[in-house]
Every structure is written in C-alpha cells, then in structure tokens.
Amino acid sequence: MLSPSSALALLQLKKSFSIKKFYSEYFEFYHLPSYPKTEYWKEGSDCCSWDGVSCDLVSGHVIELDLSCSWLSGTIHSNSTLFRFPHLQRLNLAFNNFSGSSVSTGFGRFSSLTHLNLSNSLFLGLISPEISHLSNLVSLDLSWNDEAEFSLLGFDSLVQNLTKLQKLHLRGISISSVFPNSLLNRSSLISLDLSFCGLYGRFPDNDIHLPKLELLDLMDNYNLGGNFPRFSENNSLIDLYLPLTNFSGALPASIGNLKSLQTLDLSGCQFSGSIPTSISNLKSLQILDLSICEFLGSIPDFLENLTQINSLNLDVNHFSGKIPNVFDNLRNLISLDLSGNNFNGQIPPSLGNLTNLYKLDFSDNQLEGAIPSHVNGFSSLSSVRLGYNLLNGTIPSWLYTLPSLVELDLSHNKFTGHIGEFQFDSLETIDLRMNELHGSIPTSIFELVNLSSLKLFSNNLSGVLETSKFEKLINLTYLDLSNNVLSLTMSVHSNSMLPNIAFVDLSNNNISGIWTWNMGKYTLYHLNLSNNSVSGFEMQPWKSMQILDLHSNLLQGPLPTPLNSTYFFSVSHNKLSGEISPLICKASSMEILDLSYNNLSGMLPHCLGNFSKGLSVLNLRRNQFHGIIPQTFLNGNSIRTLDFNSNQLEGLVPRSLIICKELEVLDLGNNKINGTFPHWLGALPKLQVLVLRSNRFHGHIGFSKIKSPFMSLRIIDLAHNDFEGDLPEMYLRSLKATMNIDEGNMTREYMGDAYYQDSTVVTIKGLETKFVKILNTFTTIDFSSNNFQGEIPECIGNLNSLRGLNLSHNYLIGHIPLSFKNLKMLESLDLSSNKLSGRIPQELTSLTFLEVLNLSQNHLIGFIPQGSQFQTFGNDSYYGNPGLCGFPLSNRCTTDEIPYPSQEIEAKFESGFDWKITLMGYGCGLVTGLSLGCLIFVSGKPEWLVWIIDKNIHKIVRNKRSTRRRGARRS
Question: What predicted TM-score, i.e. pTM, was given to this entire model?
C-alpha cells in the first residue's frame, strides 16, 4: 500500500498540470493510445492501481510512472512533487507539453532509474549535467526536444558515466560535438540515435565492435563526415541511417558483412563509385535508399537477389545504361524510384509483374520507346512519374484503369494520340504537359472530383471547352491548358465553379470575346490569358489576384486598374486607350507593370515612380504619352527596368533617377527628350542598358566627375541625336563590362527574371532587330547619326568583348584605328558616312566573327584586305570610296597598291561555318539570309546570333527612320 505522503505527492503532481489534447494526428498515425491518465486518479483509492503508476509489491514504493500520451500541459518546476519518488526505476513522460520546462537537476535524484523517456515533450534549455549521475540507466530517450541542448562537456560526461546504456536516443537535441570514440566500444549498446544533433568532424575510421547494435541513426548531421563505417563480421545491425551527412567515398566490400540489415539509408551523402557486388549478400534488406549521392555506373543484375526489398530508391545519381530486367524476383517492391539519372533504353517488361507497387518514378532520364502495354494488376499503384524522358507512342490503356492512382506524370515526352477516358475518380494530379497529344480533353477528366492539379499545356489539344464542364472539380487548385488550340464557351452559371482555384493559365489558345468566367473569387491569385483574342471583361471580381497577364489580346477601352494585391500586371500588345488613372498608384504591391504597345495617351501620373517600393519593371513602350517623365522616385526603390521608348515624352531626364541604385535598363529612345548628356547616370552601379536614341539631346558629351562612370554598361545607344564634339574617350575607357568577358566561365542567361525578360532594339545595317530577350554576353555601342567629329579613339580597341559598333553618319576623320584588331568578338562594324581616310587595316582580317561590315561613304583608299571574313563582304560594304580597289569592287588595284598577304588569308573557321550562306540574303533583306543560314547555326558562328536568333526570340522590322533629316543629309 502506497504511503499517504506519496499519494498526496501524486495528487499534487496531477494538479500542477492542465489537460489539453494535442499530438492527436501523430497518435492516430502511429496507433498510440492517448488519453488523460491522471483524470482517473481519485483521492482515497489505492494509488498503486492508478493508471500509469506501478509500485514495488514488497516495499510499496512507487517504482514506475508512465504518463506518456496523457495530454499533460504545464511546467515541471525544480520543486515539483515529481522528484519526491527516489525509488523510481522507470519514468516515461513522453508526448506531453512541458513547454518552459528544462531537464533540471531534479531528474538526477533518481539514483535507481533504469529507463528515462522525456521525448517529444517540448523541454528546452540546458540539460542538467546531473543526468549523467544516473549510472543505472539502461535506456535514455530525450529525442525531439528541439530547443534542449547539452552544455559544452555535458554530452561527453554522459557518455563516460552511463556505461550500462543499451538505448540512447537524443534525436534533435543540440550536442554540437565530435562523435565520441568511446561509444563505439560500448558493447551493451543496442540502439543509438544521434540524428539532428549537430555532430561534426570525422567519424572514427576504426572498426566498430558493437555486437548487439541493431540501430545506428546519424541522420542530418551535415558536418559529420568520414568513410562508410567499418563493422566487424560479428554484428547484429538491422537499421543504418546516414542520410544528409557528409560521409563520402566508395562503399566497401565489407558492407556485405551486414547480413541482418533491413534498412540502409545513405541518401543525401557524398558516396560515389559503383554499387559493390557484396551488397547482394544483404538477403534481409527491405529498404535501400542511395538517392542524391554521386554513384555511377549501371544497376547491377545482382540486385535481383534482394528478394525481400520493398523500397528501392536510387534517384538523383549518375547511374547510366539500361534498367536491368530484374523485377521478376523483386515481387515485394512497393516503392521504386530511379529518377534523375542517365538511364536509357526501354522500360523493362518485368516491371509489369510488380503487383504490390505503390510508387513508380523513372522521371528525368533518357528512356525511350513505348510504355509496356501489358501489366499484371497494379491495383495498389498510387503514383506514376515518367516525365522528362524520350518516351513515345500512345499512352497504354492500363494507365486509365488503375483504381488507386492518385498522381500521373508523363510530362516532357513524345507521346502521341488521344488522351483516353479514366475509369476511376481517385486521381488528384494529372501532368501530361509538353507532349504531342491531340484531340479533345476527355469528358472523364471533368468527373474526377478529387482532382487538384491539371497540367495539359504545350500539346495540340483542340475543341471547344464549356465552362459548365468544370462544375464537379470543386477541389481543383491548379489548371494549365496553355499552348494548345482550345476555345472556350462561358456559361452564365459558371461563376460559382472552381471555388478553390488558385492558378489558371489558358494562354496561347483560341479564346475570344468578352471574359465572363469569374471563378475563384477569393482564391485565384494567378491568371494568364495572354496570346488569345479576349476583347474585354464583364467584371474583375477577384480579391486575391497577384499575377494578371493579359498581354497580346484584343482588349479595348480604358486601362483596367489592378488590385492592391497584384504584383505582376501586363496588358501589353492590346488596343487599350485613354489615360492612366492615378488610382493605379494604389497598387502598392506592384513589382512588374507592363503597359507597352497600346494606344494609351495623356500625361503620366506623378505618382508612377514612387507608388510601390517593390516596383522592379515599368514598361510604357510604344504608346502616345506626352509631358514629362515622373520626377520622384522612392529612396531604397527596387526599380530595375524603365522603358519609355516610342512615346512623345519631353523635358529633361529626371535627376532623381540617381537614387535608383538597382536600375539595369533605362530606355528613353524615340521621344522628344532634350538637354545635354545625363552624365550623372554614370554613378548607377548596375546600369547595363542605356538607350537615348532619336531624341533631342545636344551638345558635347564631355567629361564626368565620377572616377569610373558606367562600369556595368554594355549596351549604349545614343543614335539620332545632336551630340557633337569628339567621341567621349573618358566614357569609352570606363566600359569595363565590354572588356575581357570570360564567356567560358560564365552562365549564359537573359536579363530579367523567371516571368519577365528585358528587351531591346538594335540597328544592324539599316534594319531594326528586336531582341525580346537580352543575353548577358551581348554588348554594343551605337553613336550613329549625330554630329561627332575628330578621330576615332584608339581606346575603343580595349573593348575586346564588343559585339557591335556603329559610328556611322557622323563627321569622323582620320584613319581606322589599328587597335580595332583587338575586337576579336566584333560581329557588326558600321563606320559608314563619315570622312575617314587612309587604308583599311589588313589586321582587320583577324576579326573572324565579323559578319556585317559597312565602310561606305568615306574617303578610304588602297587595297581591300583579303581573307577570312573579308571574302564574304559585297560591294555595298565599300561603295562611295572611289580610292578603294580590289575584290569585290570592279576597280582593280595597281601593283604598288597591293599589300603583302595576311597570314589570315584563306583561313577557315574552326567550326567550318561559312557566313556566305547567310549573306546571300542581304540583297533582299536580313530575314532571307538568316533563313538560309539557320540550318547550320547549331555548329557555326557568330555565337551571339546562334544564341539569340532562335524560335520566337527576335523579329526584324525595317527602320522607318532611315530617311530622317540627318541621315539623308549625310548620305
């Protein structure tokens, strides 16, 4: 019978906590009994019979308290009556809420304790060193108290003193120590879990003599490294977890000694090499996870010996070759993941015999051929992921009849034919994007009541979709049908459909008329209807819209005002008219605002430069705005791109732009802006593109007080203004971004971000070429059609990464600088309509990338250099220089005019690319020439055109300004 004082202590312990149910989902998942045990402790009854209390039959002392999963909530203070039971042998307080409690000195008083479990109970702070005095402990579990930690020497002391430990679980406790060698000689250890503990250093290389050890878990100790642990043949290891550590090297043959092993998880490590043959000795292995490592080679056939395996994960490695046809012997497989490797060949037919398979993932490989057409069962198959391969043929019929299928991903392949009808409604995710499927969307898809994500974009699907078909898809949150040939009929009752939809992309289809489908009133945040023929909106009821992309439609009337929550808003390439309402400045979340290519007019609201601190892009190109540019910009703003090209703006460039420290693109071309050159823009550290062409700028460019102006500038266009004086040598010397670009060691990418890329227009041989994306290696200077005079500075030769240089239609004199031979990347050079004299330097034949050359209308004399690219230039490159002679001109040279031949004569490109094919088109326009040359772009040069002139990357329009007053005067 328990003493009255002990009973009172237990009742006081009960009162110190409140009862609150939590961890309920965890309890249900692991089938743990959970209820408030102390609720049944009643005064006056036998305390030893209370739930969770055990007493010694002789002495009557309380020897065990098991209050795990008891919904206890409160703090265990140092004077708690819990510590009044000195005879306790077992104490289990796991899965409660003792937030604010620490593992205090009181726990060190239980000198008879053999089992202590405080796991998952929200203890925090330093763990008392007195716990290491519990020398009789056989089992210690403090795991998943993530805010608890050992003192500097606390863990070492615990390991040294607790010599009887069989189970040590400290998962999630901050240890921040090297792995103690002494643990590897603790022969009593059966289970050791030091995962998520912040261990670091090198794991000991010596043999592990732990004959009873069944579990070793070192997961998620990122800074703990070493080779694969060396276990002696005398071992009992069942589960080995080393994921997300820094272990590395090849797997040793001795891994075959782990003959009792059931789980081997090495995922997220640095292991490399091939899979050793000795792994076939692990006959008991059930889980093999080698994912996200550096393994290579083929999958060995001996894996068929692992007949007990139910989970095989080899994803994200460097495995290659064919997937072996070994699955006949692996009938227990539930999960098979080989994704993210370099496997090729066909899917092995024995895969169809894995009747227990739940998950199949072969995505992101190079598999080809058809999916096997016959399988045996697959009644449990829940997830099929075969995306990002080279698979072809039609989708086999069995994929439409899987009763448990939840996820189907066949994206980024070459499947053809129609999409079949699904027989069961278990599907939640369908991803068939980027294939060659055609026909209509099957009606069964609209019966999938559990469907949450539907991705069918970039196929050739057609037909008319009625919005009423979506009525049953109440769980759909993601819908992407873009890049097809679909039309849409909107029902008058469709507004209540798709109540949970968040993402809709119907761009690049055949949708027309007034948009009336107002689904997802409170949930829709992304709507992309671009590249359709939508002419207007009945209303815009959305309350959470963040991304609204309506570009390239037939929208008319006034500009719609975006919501305050919207951060991407594009209505470019429409027919909108009228003025910008100042209400647009209430969209304080705006980051990208693109109103370009419309018929908008009026003056720009003064608030347009400062209404959103997050504004990154403001594009008003090709409208009819007049007046001045907004003068005020916010301090600390995020503006990266300002494009006001092709309007009727006037006045000066606002000096407040100097605070736009993130500015990369400033395009003010084709307006009526006046004043002198805005030299103070040179202080902007990230400015890469500056376009001031076709305005009313005037005067000398002069010098700058800034030490190194325009350090990042790589595209500068000052053409068609009234600048005068010498070319700005100081600025030309500062263009570091056009010098010594090491393209071999840089990632080629486009300016902008994932959803918006910057664009620019470059004039090449009288044609405007629009680059809707700007490659980060593209560099050009255009000072044409001004009043510059004097000689061309030699320092231009330092700009050795320059791709294009246009100084035409000025009053430049003197010789072509010999330093131009250093412009090894130059592909377009236009010095026409100047007053240059002297010979064409023979050294220019070393410019093997040069594709466009115009030296016409000058006073050049002598022999035209021969060899290399100069063999491809026609008469129009040289006309108007009566003193020139030699090929391709009919004017032959006399003997004293013929220079010594260059070493470059008759030199061939390393790639064998011949630009004569491309230049055949120049007589009738650049389009024809590029069309003839496109078949050999894959291996030819120049590189920037190979990269930039691609499908939908640029379009060329004739320069309507070629007859402007200045150009006509100088021609």
Answer: 0.83
- Which DSSP state fits 376? S
Residues of the chain with pLDDT under 70: 1-3, 23-26, 29-30, 492-496, 764-766, 895-971
Distance in angstroms (rounded) separating the CA atoms of residues 186 and 249: 26
Specify whether the CB–CB gap between 203 and 226 falls below 8 A.
yes
Distance CA 418, CA 439 (A): 6
DSSP letter for 828, please.
E
- Separation CA 124–CA 100 (nearest Å): 7
- Would you say the C-alpha torsion 152, 154, 155, 161 has a positive or negative sign? positive
Question: Which tokens sit at 515?
Answer: 């948009």
For residues 827 and 732, give the distance between their C-alpha atoms in angstroms, rounded to a whole number.
Answer: 19
Query: Tokens 């009133």, residue?
Result: 521
CA–CA separation, 463 and 480 (whole Å): 16
> Residue 277, SS3?
helix
Nearest of 305, 260, 259, 269 to residue 289 by alpha carbon: 269
Cβ neighbourhood burial of 475 (10 Å; 0-12, 13-18, 19+): middle
Rounded to whole angstroms, how far apart are CA atoms 285 and 261?
6
The SS3 call for residue 436 is strand
Tokens in use for 595?
């109103």
Q: Is the peptide bond before 888 cis (omega within 30 degrees of 0)?
A: yes
Token pair of 591 as six digits: 């980051």
Q: Are strands 954-958 and 767-771 parallel, antiparallel or unpaired?
A: antiparallel
Q: Tens of pLDDT along 324-345?
A: 999 988 999 999 999 999 999 9
Task: Judge contact between 970 and 951, C-beta under 8 A.
Answer: no
DSSP 622-661: SSEEEEEPP----TT----EEE--SSEEEEPPPGGGGG-T
Residue 292 tokens read as 């996200």
